[in-house]
Amino acid sequence: MEPLVKIEGLKKTYRQGMLEVPALQGIDLKIRKGDFLAFAGPSGSGKTTLLNLVGGLMSPTEGRVLIEGQDLAELSPSALSDLRLRRIGFIFQAYNLIPVLTAYENTEFVMMLQKVDETVRREKCMGLLKTVGLEGMENRYPRELSGGQQQRVAIARAIVGEPAIVLADEPTANLDSATAAQLLDTMEMLNREKQATFIFSTHDPAVMQRAKTLVRLRDGMIESVENAACAG
Amino acid sequence: MFKLAWRNLWRRKRRTAITVLSITIGVGLCLFYTGLGDGMYGQVISMAVRSGSGHLVLENRSYRDDQVLKHTIQASDELIRSVKAVEGLEGYSLRISAPGMVSTSYGTVGGGFDAVRPDLDKEFSLLNRNLVEGRYLESGRDMIIGTELARKLKVNIGSKVVLTAQDRDGETVQDLFRVVGTFRTRSDMMDGFYFQITLDQAREMLGLGPDDLTQVGVYLEDRHLQDEARDYLERCEPVKASGAAVVPWQEVLSDLANYIEVDTASNYIFQILLFLVILAGVLNTVLMSVMERTYEFGVMLSIGMSRMRLLLMVVVECAMLAAIGTVCGAALGWAENALLYRYPIDLSSYLPDATVGGYFMDMALQMNLTLPHFITTLALVFVMILIVGVYPAFKAARIEPVDALHSL
After folding, report:
1. DSSP state of A144
2. What CA–CA distances, in Å, run from A29 to A22, A214, A216?
3. Where in chain B are the domains?
4. Which option is the CATH number for A5-231: 3.40.50.620, 3.10.180.10, 3.40.50.300, 2.60.40.10?
5. A10: closest CA among A57, A49, A67?
6. Does A57 touch chain B (CB under 8 A)?
7. Do the Cβ atoms of B401 and A57 come within 8 Å?
8. Which pLDDT value is given to residue A229?
9. The pairing of beta strand B244-248 with beta strand B194-198
10. Would you call B305 and A98 a contact, using CB atoms and an 8 Å cutoff?
């Protein structure tokens, strides 16, 4: 069966003035559909870089990333943008909602970009906000929500467009452990019920504990792959 | 996108309000100067054309370069009918213009005169309106002169004067006239060196035929009808047959036209400078608003918003800012115009003898903004603000999502 994400010989080097800093030094990995995978490792191990490369937010120095068989390097900027819109959902560490839009409008934003009909949008967004535990808070602006609630809106926004993959960069980093646990419950539920594939970059032991696949990185290389992922 | 742009605009209410206010004041000032120019020029042009020329002048094609009496036109009935059929005609004047000298026992003054038909000119003649003593021309040997000329020659109403001029063959001829009125226009040229006599007497004195004229002056109700009237007259068969050229007042009163052109250009330069200052404020607002949303734009691009859509969103924000400012500025300009049209600012006590291009100007500053100028000013302002907004929009669209996400 074709893996959802296939990473081949991935290298990324940052240039800082005259200095070249290797962030990834050859990553090979296959991620299957429906996985709940976490990249873990110390700071500077390359977790976020790897996540950004999978999300097509940057291009690799060497190697390639294939999503559903499509090499990201072959896509034009607009095609890449469209791929992110339709096949990838993003959850960021914090402050990632548009402050002038309400919880409902933030959730709806992706579907508006996808040009989905308003009736469908309404039904889906309201349902999803209920699922993530924000029923009755649809009309609140981000400033009127707690950190955990804001992150729930972000999860709803990431999942509403029915992407193949949800990329979450340290989603629990700014939350207390109880809120983080609730959020992880929600994401696990979405993974289970909607078959959404979650890929995390994290320091959080709670996330690592719940991951079906845990990929440990060190110095830009895979140190270990635990559970069900197939190391290349 | 419009909802998002609108809300973005009002994130920093005070900043947006100040920018809108600066655009409003800028537009209001531009419209004020434009309207004042329109009002002032309209007034000067109106006074100048009523001092003699008319909005359009029919004259012999050689007359402009060689203003002597051999270059006349024939005022046939057909030609006069064509003139009467001009749309928006206020009146017309049949005249002979020539240089001449007026003499009394106290001295001689050289100047210029128009011989006119009093029944035609009386209604709209500026001289008739500015008579300070006596009456307007009626018939025969009547002459009206400026107060300054009357002072130099020491003449009063009823005094006899001798006019010396050259006939169509260049021979010197003389005739006796009686001063029936004196006028004061406050133009040195008009008051000191100009006079009017009757057309019939001038023809007799100068040996001209009953239809001979140097010019037919065409006066319009609205100076903006001039181009249409000119086109019409140039197409008229009787005008073509007479060999007459249809000359606009800008050529007849070229000094005044040049003055207005230069003054208008300097007005535009002032307005451009004024607006550059305001545009710098607008650029600052939009640029700041883009810079402080770098992270947010990074999020938007990451979740799939296209760069073009992001660019459009910023342009729409700028268009909204421009629209609000322009509409408020238009309202301010309209109010200024309504107020200063009805209640002109009277500066006559400060500038009693002000002239523009040699013509007296009534120093009541009146705004009379024309619709084309109103629309052009607003459109220019709107477009300029939009152009200014394109740079921050491009800057926003060129943000790299990864860099932006690290900008917090």
Report:
1. G
2. 18, 12, 12
3. 2-47+257-405, 62-242
4. 3.40.50.300
5. A49
6. yes
7. yes
8. 43
9. unpaired
10. no
Please tell me if residue A79 touches chain B, with a CB cutoff of 8 Å.
no
What are the domain boundaries of chain A?
5-231
Residue B406 contacts A, CB cutoff 8 Å: no
Handedness of CA A124, A125, A129, A132 (dihedral sign): positive
Q: What tokens appear for A4 in the block?
A: 């959802």
Residue B356 pLDDT: 63
Q: B6, B16, B303, B316: which to substitute to probe chain A, counting the most A Cβ within 10 Å? A: B303
Q: What is the pLDDT of residue A232?
A: 41
Q: What are phi and psi of B168, to 5 degrees?
A: -65, -20
pLDDT above 70 for B359:
no
**Residue type present at position B117:** R
ipTM reported for the complex, 2 dp: 0.84
CB of A230 within 8 Å of a chain B CB? The answer is no
Lowest mean pLDDT among B22-26, B263-267, B384-388: B263-267
Question: One digit per residue, pLDDT tens: chain A, 232 residues?
Answer: 678 899 999 899 988 888 888 888 888 999 988 899 999 988 888 888 898 899 888 889 999 999 888 898 898 888 888 888 888 988 887 658 888 899 999 999 888 888 888 899 998 899 888 887 888 888 999 999 988 888 889 888 888 888 889 998 888 877 778 778 888 888 888 888 878 899 999 888 888 888 889 999 988 888 888 875 444 4
Q: Do A100 and B8 touch (CB under 8 A)?
A: yes
Which of B2, B9, B292, B302 should one mutate to test binding to chain A, selecting the residue with the greatest count of A CBs within 10 A?
B302
In sequence order, what are the residues at sequence separation of 6 or more whose Cβ sits closer than 8 angstroms to the Cβ of residue A211?
A: A36, A37, A38, A200, A227
